[in-house]
Amino acid sequence: MHLLGPPGTGKSHLATALAVEAVKAGKSVAFSTLADIIASLVKAEREGQLKERIRFLARASLLVVDEIGYLPVTPGGGNLFFQLVNARYEKGAMILTSNRGFAEWGEVFGDHVVATALLDRLLHHAIVIQIEGSSYRLRQHADLVPENIRARPSINPPQQTKRRARPTGKKPADLENG
Questions:
Q1: What's the rounded Cα separation, in Å, for the pair 71 and 67?
Q2: 54-64 confidence digits (pLDDT tens)
Q3: Between the CA atoms of 124, 75, 3 and 6, what dihedral angle is there, to the nearest 10 degrees?
Q4: Contact criterion met (CB below 8 Å) for 58 and 38
Q5: pLDDT digit string (tens) for 127-150?
Q6: Cβ 63 vs Cβ 92: under 8 Å
Q7: pLDDT number for residue 150
Q8: Is the Cα torsion angle 69, 74, 76, 81 positive or negative in sign?
Q9: Which of 9, 14, 79, 112 is most buried, by CB atoms within 10 Å?
């Protein structure tokens, strides 16, 4: 599941609530910001413990990765995060929160190829929830916030791809001949 939207619209709150419900249901949960996950992976790699760290993070039934796009990803961090996502792919649930649209993830991770590979796995089977609105933290001071910040453009989820039609049973030669 991906929760996308501007700051202050409840993404982390929703992710936390879902994580709490997962724990109540007896599931194991790991919850961290992207920056902290990458820092832990960088440290583990430096100490020769990367496989063990990835294995630990892959074991949780649910991994919540909060604040994707808020802080810059360190060089090489996108590759380490990809390794984690790849290890969890189709094995465990993930909830990700981001203030950035998927089209911006190449900039977030500093590498468009890594971002594409991440999105390939993260969007397969995913539910994307677009949250719009103003920050609940700024609601009492909305008149102090410049209009261009208050009225940020919405983050567009990826377009639905058209599914290919099922084969008709005709051979290519039959299709050419009608």
A1: 8
A2: 999 999 999 99
A3: -140
A4: no
A5: 999 999 887 776 666 666 666 655
A6: yes
A7: 56
A8: negative
A9: 9
Contacts of 97 (CB under 8 A, 6+ apart): 2, 3, 4, 11, 12, 15, 64, 65, 66, 67, 68
Task: Assign 3-class secondary structure to the chain.
Answer: CEEECCCCCCHHHHHHHHHHHHHHCCCCEEEEEHHHHHHHHHHHHHCCCHHHHHHHHHHCCEEEEEEECCCCCCCCHHHHHHHHHHHHCCCCEEEEEECCCHHHHHHHHCCHHHHHHHHHHHHCCCCEEECCCCCCCCHHHHHHCCHHHHCCCCCCCCCCCCCCCCCCCCCHHHHHHC
Judge contact between 162 and 36, C-beta under 8 A: no
93 close to 61: Cβ distance less than 8 angstroms: yes
Position 133 scores a pLDDT of 86
Amino acid at 84: L
Q: What is the pTM of this model?
A: 0.79
* Burial class, 166, CB count within 10 angstroms (exposed 0-12 / middle 13-18 / buried 19+): exposed
Domain that holds residue 170: 2-177
Q: What residues in the chain have per-residue pLDDT under 70?
A: 138-178
Domain count, the chain: 1
